[in-house]
Design brief:
Shape of chain A: elongated
Structural class of chain A: mainly beta
Largest sheet of chain B: 12 strands, mixed
Protein name (chain A): TonB-dependent receptor
InterPro entries (chain A): CarboxyPept-like_regulatory, OMP_b-brl_3
Order of helices and strands of chain B: EHHEEEEEEEEEEEH
CATH superfamily of the domain at 2-108 in chain A: Immunoglobulins
Signal peptide (chain A): 1-20
Helix content of chain A: under 10%
CATH topology of the domain at 2-108 in chain A: Immunoglobulin-like
Number of helices of chain A: 7
CATH topology of chain B: outer membrane lipoprotein receptor (LolB), chain A
Radius of gyration of chain B: 18 Å
Domain Outer membrane protein beta-barrel (chain A): 468-767, 769-924
Largest interface: A-B, 89 and 69 residues
CATH architecture of the domain at 2-108 in chain A: Sandwich
Strand content of chain A: over 45%
Strand order of the largest sheet of chain B: 7-8-9-10-11-1-2-3-4-5-6-12
Pfam family, one (chain A): OMP_b-brl_3
CATH class of chain B: Mainly Beta
Oligomer: heterodimer
Shape of chain B: globular
Amino acid sequence: MKKRLLLLAVLVHTVTLVFAQTPTKFNIKGIAIDSGNAVMPFATVMLLQPKDSTLVNFGRTDENGAFEFKNVKKANYILKISFVGYIPFQIDVKPVDGAVNDLGQLKLKPIAKELMEVVVKTARAPLNIKGDTIEYNAASFKVPPGSSVEDLLRKLPGVQIDQDGNIKAQGQDVKKVTVDGKSFFGNDPKAATKNLPADAITKIQIFNDKSEQAKATGVDDGKKEKTVNLELKDDFKKGGFGKVTAALGTDERAELKGNYNRFDTKQQFSVLGLGNNINQTGISRDDFQDFRGSQANNWGDEADFGFSSGVRFFYDNDTEESISIPVGGRNFQGFSENYAGGANYNYDTKKTKFSSNYYYNQTQQLVSKKSERENFLSNNNSFKTDEDSYQNRISRNHRVSLRFEQQIDSLNTLVLIGNGRMGDGTTKFNSLQEIYRNGSTTKSNQTTINNFNEFNSTAIALIGLYRHKFKKKGRNFAASVTYNYNISDGEASQSSVNELFGAPVGSIPANINQINFTNSPRNLVKSSLLFVEPLSKKFFSETFYNFSLRRDAVDRNVQTTDGIRIDSLSNYYNNDFMFNRFGTNVRYNHKGVNISFGLAAQHFHFDGNFARSKNATDVQHISRDIFAWIPASSINIDLKNNRYLWADYTKEVSEPAIKDLQPIIDNSNTLYIRVGNPNLLPMSTHRAFVGYNMFNPGSFTNMFFNLNYGYNINQVIYNQTVDPVTLVTTAMPTNISGGQNLGSYLGFGFPLKKTKSTLNLNAGTNISKNLIYINNVLNTTRNNNYNFGFRLDLTPSDKFTFYANGNFGITNTKYSINTTQNQQIFNHTLGAEMNIALPAGIYFSSNLNYRISKNERFGFNQHIPILYASMYKILGKAKKAEIRLSGYDLLKKNIGINQYAYQNFVSTEQTQTLSRYFMLSFTYNMRGVSAKMRRQGWF
Amino acid sequence: MIVYERQEFWSKIIGQLTYLSNEEKDRVKQTWGKNDEGWKSKTKMYFNANESLLTNLEEASEYGWSSRTEDYYIYRNYEKEKKIELIEMLGKTYVLEDSLRAPNWKVLNQIKDVAGYICMKAVTEDTVKHQKITAWFTGDIPVSGGPERFYGLPGMILELEINDGDVVITASKVEFKKLEGKELALPKLKGKKIKDADYDTIIAKHIKDSIKSYRNPYWAIKY
């Protein structure tokens, strides 16, 4: 640019020769000197437009402090000279008659040394120069938390505060302190400076204001009063929001929910509550995020280091509730009534983060179900079970969670987490099962079950995490300790009556009339260590050690209704599981290529004691040691232009579930008896995965592809033996190898017309092979699934949007022992969503979900269209309220239908569920209601 | 050589996207706002009296994961008033060759210290992205360069702020050493050839399309 000036000068020079007569150009020159009259070489000289300070030209002074702008256009300019340590010099330049405007010597004043040192160098605050006065932002001065503005003022150069708190600035008394330009604190300037916390202030301005008298009279008396103005921080990080929705509907449907959140720079408090009988069991992901605020995502809380795969614990009780707050309602079939409420408090600073919350929820679920199940035996025999059942389950849970994170210093971090849950509930279950043989219409057996179960459970999970970064970049250490305690206590009364038609009397399974008392405590202690070492710039090694010790005990007492203990069904056991794993991983990372290979040695030790009762002497003992090598590898490559390629291979080893290991008989269902197998081996699975995806943000096109394969070794399957007379099935877990599955997926999305319509296509296959023994004959079930889907988004304007999607799936199931049962299942879904904005803030939105299930072998052909429509109006100028009329399942077709085809059976279930109802709802949202015309998300 | 550190404050940026509801903005603010220390990335620039070349600085992350940094080469020759830029964006690589055309800077009366240099303040506006640009430049380094695509002041720009702190680019290291010659060499220029005007059109079109589709345009281009 400097050169340009010269080039320009040469150019203009020739031009001036031609147009010598018209003096539209002139030169500006001068000499920069300092206060000691010494010349200032190499100072920056700028020529600005007076209107808005736009830079017109610039240059530097030479060794003699001289500068010259040649042949600049005749106009008014501001000339500015700057040099380190000096107040930038500024002068107005007017065109002169001659060809040169010589400004002569221009004197630069030095910036006070104190200001330079304290403000600019130490506090790094910008200096604002207005003529001869200099202002600066006081927020750059660090004072300890809790300091008052007075403490802050003391730090500022040129400000003195005496013992009484009187303020002097640049030697003059400060008469007035204003906040945001207003005098809040009367006439006492100390009131503000002593009482306001320093961290509420963003800026301090010290300036000369006109005297009060001058302001009142409008006559400037020339007196200036020193004034301090404090600018409060803008409330960027402070706020509160909340919303409440109340709804009433037909069929006694109702919903009430609300939440409120308040937050400032350090703290956040939120409450929420909900109650409904429309199957909304949990809070939504968004509501959860609002509730937990800054603590909604804590990525670093994972306490298990090393390969993510490799070990998996099975817990016995599938219905056990999670220890954390349940998010997102599951697709529940039946009727439910739900209540929940909670409060959350977070305290966050850069170094310390604390979070606590309490959450209560209560659910009552009514499930009324009819099911039909056909079991295939060898020799083309089969039997069909019809079941009519009713379940009423009530559960209540209190949850408390605490989290504390402390950044001890820049290298050390400590995280402590405590979660607890206390719950209780009851389950009532009634069922009538009827069995028909080989397609006959005459009933062969019948069982009536009446069970009632009461339970309570407590769970505690404590985690401590410590992370340390070494001075050497890339070297890291982490350690974790976890303690889990769970206990559940249950009392179940079971009654079932068996009837067998046309069979010998003696072979009828016994009726059951008993009470089970079960107490099962579980303790788990585990610890993990991780050490990351950079081997070179591109190679890292990761070494980890995992240890866990788990002790479970179950005390099950079975009594008759008269209180007499039934020894054959009672049992007591305790197990100790010890797990040790040591492994290492070498990673190569460079320019978007990440490759890792690792190997771990893994050892299980299992000790189990089984007896009929806690005090029994004839204790059976099982002890097992299992050792395995676990390899893991992965490749991730970032290719150019948003394309990614990755592949990985892992081996997972999972220990058998305790329920499956213990040699006891579970007869809670008299027609389906489970027996444990103490000889079970752990199951391992080899998994491989390959994927590719690309996204072009310019053309809005994307493509995904992936392929996955799994092979099971010692898979735990339930071998079934069916008694030919009573048709009672006895299932026993056994290991088998050879089950496998292969899946693939291809997706492609592109705009048909940019911003107006997008089409996404996808196709996939899933091929699996499952093995099972039925009456000691090996049966292989092959499932071949093919699916295809599309999604079309039409968003022509802000007033109308339309989305359509379809998924088509075919599953072919083939059985090796009973080929006549081979079948083909079709599952198709079609969906459409439409949103229309009508005038006067009224919106219409509707949604259709059409499901088709077809299975020709059973003559099953079901079409279920679920239609939802709603009309809503956004009220008020601030758009904070909404009134809405909605209709759910307008066609009254919601019948919970599920179809399964598995290793040796097919089943169809139909659950009575929430169907057509209308609802009128009112929502008030403090932050405004917005019409949902568009779907969320970027893709 | 100057190393610039760029910090992007997404909670602040998202807070300004007009098409998101207040509730969503508050959610982002509440979840991330408090601890938003800015998404950091670095660039480095080699320069002599007449030329400068700025590229993305690749650094192995602390936990040893490397993601590929996009091609980004900004070359300027102040003497010949020429610039060559190799920019990968929107799924394509562009080669921009044009003459230097500095924006209209307004020089203001504020000074502050950046990386040990006393800098003066200058402001301008990005007319394509409609952003307020604040630059701090120092007369002590008499090269009209700066970070990313900014230049044209009477000294090196050491700090740059977009929209009052949405993005802050600060020189974290300023070092003077003899260049060996290779530092200012551009890689092979492969990509779609464009001019300044084309670049502005591409950016403007992408922003327009994205806003129409209710997307955040700045996932795919630099803010």
